[in-house]
Queue: 3 jobs
Job 1
Amino acid sequence: MPAEPLTLPHTSSGWNAFIADGADSALDAARDVVALLTDGTSRTPLAVLELWNDAEARVATASGFTSLFAEVHPDAGVRELSEVKTQEITAFLTERGQNRELYNVFAAFDASELDAEAARLLDHVLRDFTRSGVDRDDATRARLTEISERSTIVAQEFSRNIRDDVRTLRLRSEQLDGLPDDYRDEHGVGDDGLVAITTDYPDTVPFLTFATDREARHAVSRQFNNRAWPANDPLLHELLDLRAEQATLLGYDSWPDFDTEVKMIGSGDAIGEFIERISDLAGESGRAEVQTLLKRAQQDDPTITAITVGDGAYYTELVRREQFGVDAGAVRRFFDFDRVRAGLLEVTGRLFGISYRERPDVPRWSDDVTCHDVLRGDERIGRIYLDLHPREGKYKHAAQFDLATGVSGMQLPEGTLVCNFPRGLMEHSQVVTLFHEFGHLVHHVLGGNQRWARFSGVATEWDFVEAPSQMLEEWAWDADILRSFAVDADGVPIPADLVARMRTAEDFGRAQRVRTQMHYAAVSYRLHRERPVDHDAAVAELARRYSLITPLSDTHFQAAFGHLEGYGSGYYTYMWSLVIAKDLFSAFDPQNLFDAEVAARYRDEILARGGSADAADLAAAFLGRPYSFDAFGRWLEGDN
Ligand SMILES: [Zn+2]
């Protein structure tokens, strides 16, 4: 029997009941399963896994929609209720992870009577239990609980300091030379005759990209790279100590070893090796790019001897404009939002052999949102919601949120794209973001026809998750594909030579950017692994080794490096996924990105499999060989 979608409330008053009853009934069902499984009845391993799976599917879906509506619902009361329910679900999962009686039920099984996928599920369930310390003695478990509670508090404080420490620099108006008119209009002169520039991104990023005054750029960059300093220094030390202690109590040598056990990369040491390898690959091109920047800087001022953190963005932009003649304003007119959205559905439908049927009759949380059934032939295989414009109280970034976790015959996969695009003309970079996020959405839906909820959709290793999304970005850079929907108001499609120039301009500086990313990855890895006493000295040493851009003196960027909280030692994952994405993309013919055979194989061997096998095995099944770094190396050399 085909699975049915969730029924969202038809009236605005129905939302509170939908959230509360939905979460409560999922938690009640999951608690009933815990009670059943520990009631002493003898059951086969498969019967136990099936009961577990029913609970898992319901809790994952409840966790999906409460997380989504906490970020997007227009009614603040519904957002708050959703947050409370998310916390209740997290608390239940933490408690269940420590339930030794329940763990013993799984640990007693003989996996040999299970099929491969069920055995994999059992393996993952046991691994989740041991990674939360369920098999340790009472004193150790008590300490692990303390560490977990304290880590949450320290991590929240670390993030809050970054969010709240907004600094302001006051500059003379001539120091804004080079900035676009709309930026200057928004930054008027104050009573003291000066202009205020804050550390918020909309202030700092354009300033570092366009301001011609080098001294002012350096001052803005210094201010930005000192956010949360010194407040976050002791917190970062404490967080690293807590993580190291947690890893040791669980029997690992270090936090990176604990963290990578469930990642594609496999070991802590492998992160260090990966950083070295990528840095080597990017070394020659990166140094040449920085020489180009330095030469251009010396035309302005012959005494400049190094491209600093306060110069990189400015000279990269200048070289792109002067050498490749790409004018962002001229590009924008080809990307009308409605046409882009229609084009995205057309392109991805053709690529993956699916179609979308808009459902204006289905209730949504805002009139801005559109709902579409995803069809394969006549069969409905999923449902998506597109929530693409800004709204008060809505999530500020771009992301895919699960709405329902797909389980075959039980629950239809449903996902939501949450973005903040303009209603009229879009930047090309926003079109690329839209394709990227849609890559996650289509992974969630096409991977959502699983037997086991644990492996549904994007439930692969965390360092693989960005590969399908980064790969789909390529479709937003193809001249033929863009011509199908990038059409200006007079009906003229975007010229192929303009797309070619956009690509060349985008490519300039990529090896240097890769080296900067490897500096960040090394900071995230080495601070966790070595826990140096002096973070400033360690970060500076790693900058000398990996970054080709010179840091400014008296800055402490690690204090505001928010990923140290969320990603821990795993900042490398973005680049790792990109290596895989470039390799997967190499299977496609660049002259024909719609090749039906390759696209179908990609859909079936990568996306549809979800987390039902290790990502390395999925990649090998698609490529017909193990994944490699070759395509990434060629990309770095400037070969598309
Ligand atoms: Zn992503």
Job 2
Amino acid sequence: MTVHDAHCHFFSRRFFEALGREKYGAAGGATVDAVANELGWEAPGEPAALAARWVEELNRHRIARAGLIASVPGDEDSVAIAVAAHPDRFVGFFLVNPTASDGLEHARRAFATPGMRCACLFSSMHHYRLDDERVAALFEVAAAHRGAIFAHCGYLSIEARTKLGLPTMFDLRFGDPLALASTAARFPGVPVIIPHFGGGFFREALMAAAACPSIHFDTSSSNDWIKFVPNLTLADVFRRAIAVAGAHRILFGTDSSFFPRGWRKVIHGAQRAILEEIGIEDAARAMIFSGNFDRIFAA
Ligand SMILES: [Zn+2]
């Protein structure tokens, strides 16, 4: 069966540099290698080399296409290099802060670049509401370019920051799926992806999806937010998400990010087993593992 991964992070040099600057200051001179070493991760090399590393990894696991996320604002060029080199394998996603003075301009430039298809919002990190007019302005840009929006909701933790002892100044109240739904409803032609089934705001994410047909979920990560809900299992989550949103609005993803760990096969194994367990039809399974991704990000 064809498998696409809707959620992989492209941890480029710029990503490591941003972390190094934050930890050691602009003049601290922490090199990419030093930060990678501290994390116990491979240094990424140049974007073209990192892209080749990813292609090799996807080949090894027979993954056809992947959404590749530029994971700090302003890093869309790194992913654009990867996408330009491997347009049949990668779809470009890029983190943008629509409340930053240059946020919209970055989004416009990125969406105008071939293969760059999805703007990613981390409102808890950048402290804005998802029903803010500046978010609507970003949706307008996405609509004009037939792009998509990815909006992280719910619980947020970033492994690299935790490992480096960087403060996480997140305000989780900003990750509200219902605020997202109120903006998404104004732009019915813009596909919206909420990762990790809403990351703990599962009920709200389901309500958002019920209210708003453009809202999709990705299944990525270990989804350990289920620990916030007594007795909830990931099988329950899949069952309920399929019942409310339908299999046509669920995209398989892993949240893979760094090497040497590479592609998170274990996530795929666990989720394949769950879909087996809950007995969904082959057609629905094919939508989740590749069809929905191909529909939103038609080559
Ligand atoms: Zn992620």
Job 3
Amino acid sequence: MSGLTLDPSAVIADLDELAAQSGGRFAGAKRLAWSPDWIAARAWLRGKLDAIGLPISQDVAGNLWATVQGETDDFLIVGSHIDAVPDGGWLDGVLGLMTALETVRQLAAMPEPPPVSVRFVDWADEEGARFTRSLVGSSACAGTLVPEDVRNLRDAGGVTLGDALANCGIDLDQATRATASLDGAIGYLELHIEQGPILLDGGRLASAVSGTFGVERHLITFTGQAAHAGSTPMHVRRDTLAAAAQATLAIRESSIARGGVATVGNLASTPGVITAVAGRTEMQLDQRHLDPTALAAMLEDALSACRTAADAFGCTMEVRRVFAATPTPFHPALVAAAREAVSAAGGDDREPVPSGPMHDATEIGRVVPTVMIFAQSDPPVSHAPIENSSDEALRVAISAYGRTVGWALANVDALRGDATQ
Ligand SMILES: [Zn+2]
């Protein structure tokens, strides 16, 4: 099979066509998972796949698949996600999805079938914007979705995730059977925008990605005593907000020292009025690192900082883990191939970067040889209508992706060996 040359202009034209449905590139994407807008976007996508003549199917977790039949039934996966956060950008998810679409379009037009089948996928509910649980479809395929954990998550209107899925014809209890969708998969390749400043700061148009950060999320509740702001002397207060604030700053220092990222995204205090000491404060903590040992150390630092602060302010504390994901290092040979492909496509061949955000590749990479390529974000902002990448960065990244798919199709035996381990 000869090399695969994608047409970046075709990808960008598809992106603009999709963006036009919500008012253009910078008008704010409207494709919230499981919503009528999302269903409409998927209908548009089905039309694109129909035009190529590919058979389409939806698995039990709501992921949309289309297959280019190869010489064998085992397959390479290309894809990303069409869902978006409310008022999202014009590239998040769909850059990778439209590039995967162009990939299967090119492969289907070739006189010879590829050596293995190539399956296009649109993962369902990557963002988790509505129910707070991201990577729903891909985690179902990877075998890490636990229906009981997510069934009663509610959106702002009180609708549960279980009911929203049922409205789209998906039975949450059956969704775990989506692991069958990966039977025979030998590799997964995903292109995405970086959504951060590392490539822009380094003057890099695109990069291979070495893996995605592991994540620890905890709710930490400090309990003290609510008391009158005027009559309670400072030395007798059991002030939970002061304790949480002290711990927050210590957590920040630890993440800097250990080379990870940590975010206290919210401190919610009660009674939450200007005239009372906060008797109870709940801290929402998110920590991430590519190295599991360093991530565990960051968590230990954080809990110890919270304990110290609770003691200092006469409070007690309680810890609840709400989410955890181990780091996903990507497949070394695919990462090396993607790095070479970026360089050959007009980028540089500097070290691959790790990803702070999780992606569908985080889940699929646990069970199938996987790699991602990032396109530079400029401005380095995502999940906002101003999200953008230069035309040059998009072209390099799209072309690098096509070259990496070409490498994978030329090296299916190497991938097969690793896929079955
Ligand atoms: Zn995304």
